[in-house]
Amino acid sequence: MDEKTQNEISRRRTFAIISHPDAGKTTMTEKLLLYGGAIHMAGSVKARKAAHHATSDWMEIEKQRGISVTSSVMQFNYDGYCINILDTPGHQDFSEDTYRTLCAADAAVMLLDGAKGVEAQTIKLFTVCRKRGIPIFTFINKMDRAAKNPFDLIDELEKVLGIRSTPINWPIGTDGDFQGVYVRETEEVLLFDNETKDHGASMVKSISAGINDEEALKKILSDHHYETLKNDIELLDMAGDPFDLDKILAGELTPVFFGSAITNFGVEPFLKKFLEIAPGPQAHETSEGVIAPDEDFFSGFVFKIQANMDPNHRDRMSFMRICSGKFEKGMSVKHMRTGKKITLAQPQQFMAYAGDIIGLFDPGIFRIGDTVTTSSKNFNFANIPVFPPEHFARVQPKDSMKRKQFLKGIEQLSEEGAVQLYKQPGIGTETYIMGVVGVLQFEVLEHRLKTEYGVDILRNNLNYRFARWCSKQDESADIDFSKLTLTSTSMLVLDRDEMPVVLFESEWAISWALEHNEGLKLDDIHER
Ligand code: G4P
C-alpha cells in the first residue's frame, strides 16, 4: 500500500453520537463541525433539523431531504484528522438504521443531559455499542444549568449501563451555579464565562493550579466551590477508576467529560482528547479471518439502504463502510453474495479510504450486510445483527386478488431491512406480522407497498412491545420451542429464517417465560 493511502487511513476517525432525543446531539454536532470549519454559521445543522421536523408528514420530509450522502455522514478535518460523524436518526425516525449505523462506527460518543442522566434511548443504543466492544466516550451536557450530582451520574453509568467510568474533568457548581471544570490530568481549571453570548466562540479561560493550590484557586472560586471541588477530587482520586487506555479501547471503561454544547463550553477540549484516545479504522471480522484496514485491496460492507420515497426515482441509496484499502469512483468490484463483478458507479465522492462511508446509487443489487471487494479472495464480513423491533402489526392486502404483489413487496422490504417479517406457525400466508423499531416505519411500509407494488394494506396494530429470539442456554437442553409455556398475551412466531421468536407485551412476561421454561434463552439482538 502506498504511503499516501496509509496516511489517509490512519488519520480517519469514524464515530456516532448516541443519545436520547433533546440531550443536545444536534447542538453538539454543530459545534464539532464549526471547529472543523465544515460549516461557518452556528445554526445550520439546527436549521436543517428544524426543516426536518417542521411537518409531521414524513413523506414530505423525505421528499425535501431527497437521498443525500450528507444526511448519513458528516465529514470534516481538524488538527490533521479526517473525522466522520455518522448520523444516528432519533426522534420519530428512530429505526433499525439507527442501530445498524453503529456497526459502521469505530467509536461512540454518548451524550447525556446532565439533569436527566441515562435515558431510555441511550440505553438501547449503548447496548449495541457494548456488544460490539467499541470505545464509548461520555459527554455530560447542559452543565450550564442545574444538573444531577456528578457522583450520582457516574453511579448511574455503572448501575444502569453497567460500565465503569473515569472522569477526565469534573464540574464545579452543579446547582445552576456552574463555574467551569477542573481537568484532572493537567490540573487546570477551565472557567465558564456566563457573559459570553456568542455561541460560535469558545467560552474557556484556563487557569493552571493544582487542587491543593488553595491560594490560586480561591482567587477564582468561592470558598464553597473550592472546598466542594477539593473534596470531590480527593474522593475521585481515592475511590474512582483510574484512566486506563486499554480498558477504554476495549469498551470496558468510559472516559467522562462534563460540558455544555450550546455555550460551546468544553467542546474543543473534548474533541482534542477524543482524537488523542479514539482508535482509527479497526480491523473487521470476516468468514475467512480478520481484514485489516491497510490491506492492499478494497473491501467494504453495506450497513444501510435508503429507499427513495419519490415514485419517479426508484433508485435506492446503499451506504457502505469501507473496511480496507481505497475507493475510487467507478471502480469494479466483486459482489460476494452473487459472485458478480459490479461497478461502483455514481457515488458522490471521487476517493475514499478505509474508515469512510460511501453512498452508492443502487438499482436493487444490495442487501444489508453485503460484502464487496477487489480482492481475489472470497470472504464475507460478519453479518449485521437483527435488532429488536418495538412495534408490531398484523398486515394483509385489502384486496385478496393482490396477494402476489403483496408478498413480493413485503419480502423485498424485509430484505432491505426496513421491516421484520413474522409468520404464525400453522396459519396461512395471507396475513403476516410486521415488526418495526420506529413506528414511522409502518407509514413508510404502507406508502411503499402502495406506490411501488400497487397494494393497499389493512393494518391492525398489536400490543406487543418486545421480540425475543429463542435459543437454548445449553445445546443439550431438551426444549421444544413450539410447546413453550407462555402467558396468554405472549405469542410464538417464526422469523424470515424460520427461527422461533416470542412476542411479548411486557418485561414481566419475558421474566415469566424464562422462569417457566427451563434452559430457554431469549435474545433481544439476533446474530444471523
Ligand atoms: P437533540 O439533537 O439531541 O434532540 O438535541 P438538540 O441539540 O436539538 O437540543 C435540544 C435542546 O437542548 C435545544 O433547546 C438546545 O438548545 C438545548 N441544548 C443543547 N445543548 C445545551 C446545553 O449545553 N445547555 C443548555 N442549557 N441547553 C442545551 P430547544 O429549546 O429545544 O431548542 P432551541 O429553542 O434552543 O432551538
Q: What does this entry look like structurally?
A:
With 528 residues, this protein is an alpha+beta fold. Helix content is 28%, strand content 28%. It has a seven-stranded mixed β-sheet with strand order 2-3-1-4-5-11-6, sandwiched between helices. A hairpin with an 8-residue loop joins strand 14 (299-307) and strand 15 (316-324). Helix 2 packs antiparallel against helix 3 and helix 12 crosses helix 13. It is globular, with a radius of gyration of 25 Å. Mean pLDDT is 88; it is low at 51-70. The structure holds guanosine-5',3'-tetraphosphate (G4P). Guanosine-5',3'-tetraphosphate is lined by residues 19, 21-27, 141-142, 144-145, 260-263.
Number of helices: 14
Q: What is the terminal-to-terminal distance?
A: 33 Å
Provide the list of bound ligands, each named once: guanosine-5',3'-tetraphosphate
Estimate what percentage of residues fall within beta strands: 25-35%
Q: In terms of structural class, how would the helical and strand content be classed? A: alpha+beta
Approximate shape: globular
Strands, count: 29
Mean pLDDT: 88
Characterize the biggest β-sheet.
7 strands, mixed
Radius of gyration: 25 Å
List keywords for this structure.
single chain; 528 residues; alpha+beta; 7-stranded mixed β-sheet; 6-stranded antiparallel β-sheet; 14 helices; 29 strands; globular; binds guanosine-5',3'-tetraphosphate
